[in-house]
Write a structure and sequence with these properties.
Elements: H1 32-41, E1 49-53, E2 66-67, E3 77-78, E4 82-85, E5 96-103, E6 117-121, E7 133-136, E8 140-143, E9 146-149, E10 159-160, E11 171-173, H2 181-189, E12 194-198, E13 203-208, E14 212-213, E15 224-225, H3 227-240, E16 245-249, H4 253-266, E17 269-273, H5 284-291, E18 293-297, E19 301-302, E20 308-312, E21 315-320, H6 324-342, E22 352-356, E23 367-375, E24 378-381, H7 391-395, E25 398-402, E26 413-418
Parallel strand pairs: 5-6, 13-16, 13-17, 14-15, 17-21, 19-23
Antiparallel strand pairs: 1-12, 2-11, 3-10, 4-6, 4-7, 5-9, 8-9, 18-20, 20-21, 22-26, 23-24, 23-25, 25-26
Helix pairs in contact: 1-6, 3-6
């Protein structure tokens, strides 16, 4: 297999923790936190940049700080539909004021407000410079050309002050901020229709197994449709805003190594679904030892125990179990944050929040990541939790993380990753 050699076998990382295939077991499993820390130590921003229209940059991180060219608001303006008054004596309940003039959004502020009068003003309209406050129209009674105040108003009431949101020169979006709808609005306000962004990593999804057929085909006998390629492609697209390359390969070592070598030459990340365990047809660990570097193999968790992480040339390799629920979970808790880091995200880590469990979860000796829904203020287990289960992936709101050696009681808070 020398023709596929990308790194010497002697270059194995010190964290290669795998027994040989004859043992059929893993030894010295990493904890989840240890696995996350190991991946993080090998992942850095690729620092590839490009200018792209903001409309085509959703999900990408900006590559330069964005400073505001102006104040927001640009001028004092009304937050409500109502009446502007010029003094405290004209702002008290029961006061009757003559309506003189009106201001709408897009019109100039006009002349000063005369004492004893009120200026009709609509939301977004600039306020005259001597505006004391604005009386909401709900708090007025209009009779002819005058109003009577049904409630007093205070100084500055319902006025949006110039620069109250941000000032000229403020940093609106620091490097690494990910462009979503809110960030797009800020860019538009700043007049930026094109953004300088970090390009996302190039990803290859490789699914393995002689039993797989394309999702468009009708499986016969013991064959099954390849769901992992579709699922992982969707996860990659959601994480990187870029569709991955997809390859399907049989359980033949020569073909498997050919595909890995080719994908390592064109992608920054290779996701291999299947072949990560220790069965006779689980080829990934052996191939990685011959061609690249195994950083670790095996995590004390359920599902996803056979998870593998390594390097093949310049490409990071994530070996995911072939069972779809296991592959799904491993992507969410390991791969998503790595892809974000490679894409320059300022805060790439996934966020765990705490919610109460609505069931008892016994300790199982490994950290357990359970697909759950959130109903009536508590977490509930979704359908089939086996690593082969698909229905729970479609219905789950979140993954709940349960400790290896301690049971969780009904009502106890537990870490939750919202999906």
């Amino acid at each position: 297999m020398a023709q596929y050699q990308l790194a010497s076998q002697a270059a194995h990382a010190s964290l290669c923790l795998v027994d040989d295939h004859t043992s059929g077991v893993f030894s010295d499993l990493l904890s989840y936190d240890e696995a996350v820390a190991s991946i993080r130590s090998h992942v850095n921003c690729l620092n590839r940049r490009a200018n792209r229209p903001v409309s085509e940059s959703l999900g990408l991180a900006i590559a330069a700080d964005l400073f505001s060219p102006t104040d927001n608001p640009l001028f004092d303006n009304s937050a409500v539909d109502g009446y502007a008054v010029s003094s405290d004596s004209d702002a008290v309940e029961g006061r009757v004021l003559v309506i003189e003039g009106s201001n709408a959004a897009g019109e100039s502020a006009g002349n000063l407000i005369a004492p004893g009068t009120a200026r009709r003003i609509l939301t977004g309209a600039p306020t005259p410079t001597n505006t004391y406050g604005i009386v909401m129209q709900e708090n007025t009674e209009v009779t002819g050309g005058a109003i009577r105040l049904l409630a007093s108003t205070s100084v500055g009431a319902h006025i949006r002050r110039r620069g109250s949101d941000f000032r000229t020169g403020d940093c609106l979006l620091p490097v690494g901020s990910v462009i979503g709808p809110g960030q797009a609005a800020v860019l538009a306000f700043a007049g930026c229709t094109v953004a300088n962004v970090f390009l996302p990593p190039k990803v290859s999804v490789v699914t393995t197994g002689d039993e797989l057929v394309d999702p468009s085909e009708e499986p016969s006998g013991p064959m099954i449709r390849d769901t992992n390629s579709v699922m992982l492609s969707a996860q990659v697209k959601a994480a990187t805003a870029r569709s991955p390359r997809v390859r399907r390969v049989s359980d033949r070592m020569d073909m498997f190594c050919q595909v890995l070598a080719k994908e390592a030459g064109v992608s920054d990340v290779i996701l291999v679904a299947g072949g990560a365990s220790v069965g006779d047809r689980d080829l990934l660990e052996t191939a990685m030892k011959q061609m690249g570097i195994v950083i670790f193999h095996g995590v004390s968790m359920r599902p996803g125990k056979p998870f593998l992480f390594g390097k093949l040339g310049n490409a990071l390799v994530f070996g995911l179990p072939g069972n779809p629920a296991s592959a799904f979970v491993c992507f969410e808790i390991f791969v998503r944050a790595a892809l974000r880091s490679l894409g320059g995200w300022r805060s790439p880590e996934i966020n765990w929040i705490h919610l109460p469990a609505g069931f008892v979860h016994p300790a199982v000796g490994r950290e357990d990541f359970v697909r759950v829904v959130y109903n009536s203020g508590k977490l509930q287990v979704t359908r089939e939790q086996g690593s082969f289960g698909l229905a729970s992936l479609a219905t789950a709101h979140a993954l709940a993380r349960f400790p290896a050696e301690q049971s969780t009681v009904n009502g106890q808070l537990c870490p939750v990753l919202i999906l």
